[in-house]
Amino acid sequence: MLKLTSRWNRLYTVLAVVSTFSIFSCQKNSLTLESPEAQLNKKAAVSAQAGATIATLNWDQTYQKIDGFGAFGGRIVPFFESAKRDSILDYLWGGSGLKLNILRGKVLHTYPFNQQTKVVTIKPAGVSIDLDPNSTTYQNLTADEKEQLGQVWIIKKAKERYEVPFVMASTWTPPLYMKTNTSSISAKWFNGLNFNTSSTAFARYLTGFVKSFQNEGITINAISPSNEPENVFSDWDASYWDSSHLGQFITNNLRPELNSAGLQSTKIISSENAAWGTADNFLSGMDRSKVDILAGHGYVEISGIITGQRGFNQSPSMWNFSIGGKPMWVTEASDDGGNYDNGIEGGLKLAVNMHKLLADCNANAYVFWLGMLAFQNNEALICTKSDGSLEFPKTYDVMGHYSRFIKAGYMRINVAVQNGNGLLISAYKEPQTGKFVLVVTNTGTAAVPLDINLTGFASGALNNYQTTSSSSGHWGNVGAVNPNSSGVYSLTIPAKSISTLEGNKL
Question: Could you confirm whether the keyword Hydrolase appears in this record (predicted)?
């Protein structure tokens, strides 16, 4: 089990290996609607509320496809040992909870590996994953064996119970004997894979990991050979990569090895840098030809760290290189700085981060860092109080405003906003069924009147789900919003809130 350490130290040390680059705020895409501007102005003129923010949804103007939302299945041992582990699974991936469709796992560096047979052993031999954590047999396992067993349980139960469609696994470090400094778990002093001796072995290790889970009846849909490859100062398990070597390893070693093992459908994710802008810089100089999913994390940029910022990036930058039609995923984000905040302020930080990465930077998927923790901390969606009861910070609610309503396969559609009043608004549609979702975040201290217009389609009543500072439910339905005679939906967005409006195209 990794020691939970303040992540800002890790991000700060990026300065040692990454050149400071300019950060440009993502700008809201304000493409001209396909309908004439006069029509838009006419709709605005019939707005029912004076001074209201006007949001016009255009059904036919689409952007990226959404692949979904997820969380990391850890920290593994506390998750597995928790007396409430079954409930936690349901709260995260179950139908009564967040309905997450992505589970992020970890390629542990401690697996026994037979280099001759290419077999990776992912759990202790002869031990059932249903072993009671309080049993003597479990207590006699080593710390590494407990972590290995726990991960198989988490992933397998999530797949069996909720049919979680997508499991990815990220690699913090190769086995130590494959690194340039074989005695260090960290990436300090640029400690990483020994390319001269271990490139083939590491590719086989990753492939063996996927094959062993396959033998357990679990499909690992995607694998990432690195996690925050620029981090060379933190004490936890990490491996240094430069973009050139990582691209070469994926193209020349990992993809061929997966293919030779019959794993052609296993996708490769890269490069999972600590911040979205860092990933832009890293991936732009990398051979991406065999990378299936381009990925970065959602933490603050270097320039933000210099000025004392921590946690969620509140102004991520659009990537500047051509992605070639490949999906872009946020594979980790949380608030890793400051005091524990389970209230609306903490939730709104996540809401801003998600909106800007999805609506301004065109990310296709968003994966939160920790699903649960055995104590109270901003890095988890579900925390555990000192009395053992579970606590759901507002970040849990915010995640649900996206994950419960926007399903894999939805398309983001254009929202033209007039008189914004600080509202962050994005919209998504399911082309086959006609369902659509509007997510509205108000970070301000005053309620904002909002009028919604529809272009290219009509709808009946919109169900309105809200989370505010005082709401006790996670995403309570506060009632239906009906259109007026002009087809305008008028409502008020509370101060410090996030709202999801769900409707159906007629």
Answer: yes
Residue 317 neighbours by CB under 8 Å, 6+ apart: 23, 24, 25, 26, 276, 277, 280, 301, 361
**Of the residues 403, 425, 448, the one at which a domain ends:** 403
Give 75-104 pLDDT, tens digit per residue: 999 999 999 999 999 999 999 999 999 999
What pLDDT does 47 receive?
A: 58
> In one letter, which amino acid is 356?
K
Confidence of residue 427 (pLDDT cuts 50, 70, 90): very high
Total of domains in the chain: 2
CA dist 442 and 180 (Å) reads 49
CATH, residue 447: 2.60.40.1180
The total of other beta-carbon atoms located within 10 Å of residue 128's CB is 11
Q: Which amino acid belongs to residue 436?
A: F
Task: Find how far residue 230's CA is from the centre of its chain.
Answer: 19
**What is the distance between the alpha carbons of residues 264 and 252, in angstroms, rounded to a whole number?**
15
d(CA 393, CA 389): 13
Q: Which domain, by its residues, includes 57?
A: 35-64+411-504
d(CA 428, CA 433): 12
CB half-sphere exposure, 468, CA atoms < 13 A:
16
DSSP string, 404-473: TTS-TT-EEEEEEEES-TT-EEEEEE-TTT-EEEEEEEE-SSS-EEEEEEEES--BS-EEEEEE-SS--S
Q: In this structure, are 149 and 298 located in the same domain?
A: yes
Q: Are residues 309 and 399 located together in one domain of the fold?
A: yes
Do 187 and 89 share a structural domain? yes
In angstroms, the CA 17 to CA 234 distance is 13
- Distance of CA 321 to CAs 20, 278, 280, 292, Å? 17, 12, 7, 16
- Residue 48: what pLDDT? 67
**Where a domain ends, among 375, 403, 431?**
403
Same domain, 72 and 58: no
Q: What are phi and psi of 189, to 5 degrees?
A: 60, 40
Rg (CA), the chain: 23
- Nearest by Cα to 304 from 271, 336, 272: 336
Distance separating alpha carbons of residues 146 and 309, to the nearest angstrom: 36
C-alpha–C-alpha distance, residues 7 and 334, integer Å: 10
